[in-house]
Queue: 2 jobs
Job 1
Amino acid sequence: MKDKDNQNPTVYLHTTPRDREKTMSELDNDVQDPFDEREIFDLIRDINDPEHPLTLEDLNVVSENHITIDNSSNTIKVMFTPTIPHCSMATLIGLAIRVRLLRVLPPRFKVEVQISPGTHQSEKAVNKQLLDKERVAAALENQSLIGVVNQCLTAKDSAYSSTS
């Protein structure tokens, strides 16, 4: 088995609580309320890291303040930060984030997933792959790759889950 890129990743305290108060308009099925950054974060926070029994939130790979939404143009942009600058799993992590959002969001949304600037040595190459619809579609036709992506998306408790 291949050695892990990051043998001892830093595990972060969760700063975004699990529960949130729902507004009356959110509870009203007749009202179409806009998506917000917190909703998108809640969709991706529990994606599993491909190398460790931890979530992307545990490793601070994703955070609410790195998500931007423009409901008027139906665009969602997620910036993520690999745990190390030479992370070989960066493209897989980005693909898992993109697949999760494409599977659960209405099809009107354009989803962009990119590495946060200056956080990876191959940032431009990885971002180019993640932003290329044809490459993403081809990757999702690869049964081995989609199997790994699905493992990242399978819900399980983090080794360091908090009850916050």
Note: Strands lie at 67-70, 75-80, 110-115.
Job 2
Amino acid sequence: QMSLLQKESIKIIAETAGVNNLSDEVASALAADVEYRIREITQEAIKFMRRSKREILTTDDINSALRLRNVEALYGHSSTDPIKFRRVMGTSDLFFVADKELDFNEVINAPLPPCPRDVSLSAHWMAIEGVQPAIRQNPTPSEITTSLNPPNKKQKINPTENAPAITNTTTNN
């Protein structure tokens, strides 16, 4: 059986992974298996694309098909825009993705993005035995009234009207 994926390509990939002296039979068998798995993932991805009523296959479709097969998703390849391939001049079946050329000096001299803020976590009691304590993390009675009943231009705000009672109860044992 002839595979579209060449055994020489499998040998090169094996060498980059540290596997040297891969036999021709093993490389041919791996090429056929890899091609089968790629076709399987592609067919599942096309199903996701069609069910999403789209005509362009996206990396999200591929990732969904990989998750369906319990395979780790692709990292670094998420784009809403389709990739535009260009044909290499003088060939019929060789394509490439044209990358934007960057000036190295512009990249180096560009201002740094702002540092992300550290993650912080704080906890407080929203209510103790059904009573909301009057602490700065909890909203005040006027904020509660304003959020429940937005004021009209003609209506005056009365913070004590329809506000839930906030009592501070402490027990000494």
Note: Helices lie at 7-16, 24-51, 59-68, 104-109, 141-148.
